[in-house]
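Q: Study each token:
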Amino acid sequence: MDLHIDDFYQDAAQGLLVLYQAFPNKSTLYMDDLIGYMAPDEFGLPQARQQRCLSTFLWLAEEGYVRYQSTIRFEALDQIELSEKAFARLASAVNPLPCALKNTPPSVRRAQGSLANQLREALQSQHSERVIELMQRFFQC
């Protein structure tokens, strides 16, 4: 099993939601806020898990999902924001809509049926397979 891929989806989902909540403002995204604090190793280098989390966002930037000004060591990305592509995907409706939303007013369907909200609910319920499914949908749009 490729656990690092599961971590990639989890880290990307959490970070993208943080940036979605801050949109359109730029912010500083700390890896510790996503994966928890991990002390550096005996040589002062970050743990492999921290490096993978940071690499997730460097890859997202290379692929045009986020923009940032600089890194802060291995700890954070400064002045990071969603690109238009990522914002539009997160704000779009998940199709098909969950059954519970089918008979709700359009404004409720738009807000609760968005990919961002569906990701938020999947992360809060710790439903990792749902997070992966939604992130795959995010990348396929």
User: Anything to note?
Assistant: The chain has one domain: 3-140. The first helix runs from residue 3 to 22. The longest strand covers residues 76-82. The helical segments are 3-22, 31-35, 48-62, 84-91, 106-112, 115-124, 128-140.
